[in-house]
């Protein structure tokens, strides 16, 4: 980038932002058919197969096979955890990869960690279960709920529907384990669960099948069709049968109403285009439902499922039961990201006309519409980049990402209650167990919402504030630490990362609410973390304190120190001038800045482990230090600002010369980390990769801060030198206006 653009910081920032947006365009979640019964995922995001419940008449010694498939874009390992409630055997793509022993079978509460390889394309996993006197089934799937994945059914007619198919119990083993190229029909064995209604239910109306026959209830059917408009009249014929009272609305206009059961026919004018078709029906205590055809001349229009659902060849969605007295807002209910109000205030959502089957959204895009801490920094960086480079489309992209999250928030909470835990949208937000899950992304949401209209953002913000203030684990002095998490590896530890996962949110929540307790809490966190993790002889922070061992790791990880200095800069920008903690925090900022400054490489970058010269040069920590130094100079936080001004400029030049290429790719970013007491882990087991979201956002923020620093310096008498008291006062006064 340096060779391509020289010192044009705005152009470099714009190139990084536009490359990111181009590679991650806006993308709505995919709607899939989801069966609520059979083998389903639990709160731990693994599949729970209880064949004693599914097949209560099964005999001891009988076998059941479960079969699911998973798409993989490239060859990679699958981390697959198992709990054996009864004897199990696992095959992947026809090859046996694991068989339980008496140890696993006698300790069903212990998770067994399996690792096997997936190939590019479809991968078929088959598991055999044997019934014993004590149990029949098991639990299997992701090793960590924060990293969920799902399997889909291998039957072509249900391609895209989440879940597993399974055989009925029998004594015989399958002669061939199914894999690529096989279908349930080709195995010669019957596989469930059945995709269709039984004969008796098929003869009834679809509303009776789905919602029962309770008198004084209503429901809505929804589909779409392309109205071709091949002649000027645009006249269409409606034909069908009503099993009870109904009305039909097309394109927002009611076109037919029938108050009694029986056949109906009518004509209507519909303009060209794809139009929504709604049929509202009411139950009088008997059978209810409808059949409908829309004819253009003698040809019937093809209906389309309104959410383009995968996993079932269904053209209609159904919503009920509703109150017959409440008017239906069709514009509102046709947004499937929302839940609707049913009878008695019960929240309901769309179903399809299959047994126990609902519509469920799945976030398929890797980096759009998701919620996690590195994306929080990325969206913050994109918002600031758009704002400070005069690129409103970049800022709008970040705002639209957050709007997608807010649009799905109520649904995601409902989904968690409805299906027992695992959500496929906003999964970290619905199952918060750590600051990672909420603080960074919600801080970005608050920052963006302060400049862009985002409906419903306060619901998420208050929900996150409740976790941080009332449920997040704290030590007796109020300092955050990690406890009772889904990831047991982190249990009973304190990570410097969590300063960024909490403090910027608390600063912005203080700004939103005006309640000083939040900014006070943010300030006190630094003293608690410093007490346990600061290494005064190095003037650097240890990455983690392990309370199980009563010891800090004493490893000055680059990004860990970056999180501290970055979040401390965010706090000092928000902290009132006369706050009780300001002087102490400014002193700590100066100490840590000096310790980090001493480790800057000649390239302008800092290393993965700050004090070890054989560690690789790392991008994200360099960007964090550059951001913090530029902020410190601009805001007058240094008694002697010149070394930090020089370091910030060298840091940015090093990033654009070494880490960022001419098309805006960001290289050299350390992947997400665990922790260790040895530095080799950080140097060897945590490699860098290109365009990791742990680095993109902070590089953008560093560039923006360099731009702001340049503008600030133009307003002063010259570049800062060793401070004279009067000059520092002038700089601080200017800095207050520059924030």
Helix content: 25-40%
Number of domains: 3
Total number of beta strands: 34
- Summed over residues and divided by their number, the pLDDT gives a mean of 94
Task: Write structural notes for this entry.
The protein has 739 residues and is of the alpha+beta class. It has three domains: 2-16 and 367-738, Glycosyltransferase (Alpha/alpha barrel); 31-192, Sandwich (Jelly Rolls), CATH 2.60.120; 201-355, Jelly Rolls. The chain is built from 22 helices and 34 strands. It has a six-stranded antiparallel beta sheet, with no helix packed on it. A hairpin with a 2-residue loop joins strand 15 (246-250) and strand 16 (253-258). The relative contact order is 0.09.
Summarize the structure.
The chain is an alpha+beta fold. The strands form 10 sheets. The protein has a 6-stranded antiparallel β-sheet, with no helix packed on it. Strands 13, 15, 16, 18, 21 and 22 form a 6-stranded antiparallel β-sheet that branches. β2 (40-41) and β3 form a beta hairpin.
Using brief descriptors, characterize the structure shown.
single chain, 739 residues, alpha+beta, Glycosyltransferase, Jelly Rolls, 3 domains, six-stranded antiparallel beta sheet, 22 helices, globular, disordered C terminus
